Predict the 3D structure of the following.
Amino acid sequence: MKKLIISIFLLLLFTLVACSNNDDTASEDVETDDTETTEEISAGEKETEEAVDYYQTPEMDFDLGGQTIKVVAWWDMEITGEDPDSIQARENLEALKEKHNFDIEYITIDFGEYQERITASLLANEPVGDLVRVGKKYTIPSFAQQDLVWAVDEWVKNENVFNLQFTEEIFQYEGQGYAFTDAKANIVQGIFYNRTLMDELGLDPIQNYIDEDNWNWDTFAEVVASANQDTNNDGQIDTWGLANPSVLERALASNDAALTAGSEQTLDDPATVEALEFTASIFELARPTEGGDWTEPEQFFREGNTLFLTGADFLYNGLVNDMPNYDIGFVPFPIGPNADGYRTYEADIQAIAIPKSVENPEQLLYIWEKIFDVQSIYDYPGQAQLESMFANEDDIENARLVMENLNVLDHFTFNNDVYWNFEAELLEGTAISTLIESHAPAFQAAIDEVYAE
């Protein structure tokens, strides 16, 4: 039986080979035009496979004559990551350096002197670099008003590279955008919480509020109050719900509100009033100060007896390292009554600008685009960062909820003392109506001073 099967197999194989040879012979008789058509179709199919579904600036041919492009920030912006996206970006850069004949230098200036040095260099028409990281608070409107940096709208269109919100919305002045960024993942602002303490106090899992779409200002206040407990029955509260005395900026952002909008103060806007009232009510529940400085809330949380700490993602690793006996989670700041979802926020946002004295802004932006136009292996911006930071899948998903919706607060564009005085009186218990009436003129005067430059 085995011999019979082998014989049949060999017969079939011989038949297939013969047919193949006949097909090859017949193909030689086909006219050359058909062969060329086939090659064209194959090339077209390949081009279709490589096509992208987003705008890319058409290829440019230019020679920078050995120019060194200087990239300036308050940290080293050199591409050093070993993830696939970073590796591809470095390879892109090397190919671009060879094709367009340039080099690149990354310059770091200490943050404490950064704004002063950048401003002085631009005013003297001697910029410290070609691509300069800037803060919005001193770029819009000041740098734009004084024509110190290029408007970049016409060159910032590739959504696979640029976070278009920065150019099209955040760094706008009189209809033009004056900065750009390739950072697609927004900062993660929210609330860190102590899961271990939550269990010890017998509280419902905080994640349940998120899962049930019931995490709002009211439920947050209820949880904060429920964690203020006297666990040893000595008549003194020894566990607390919230380490931070003020949630003003987070309340504003989570309610789609602000203290200023462009060249106007907005203290009496209904959404702003709601945020002020909520901030005052939460202050009454938060852990009282013990006379510490701005780091006191973090110190309270590290003691392990306070449930919540508001903050940004860069705090997380330090908290985990300093609290090895506690399970630290993350949830968004609760949704305000005027908002339709969770928000992250920035009150000191930054991006990259090109000094007006730079003669080839279009070429520099073209190079930046081509460096970072990579086909990412990740499913969403910031995935590598979040997965390396959080071990709990709920925490990752919660961070994603806030990353997608960024609100920017501009009150630090103006005299900072105006804001700090306002917040201090709010926490001291001044009536909201009185607070607005007494501080609105100061806010508007501070705004007018900047916009009149």
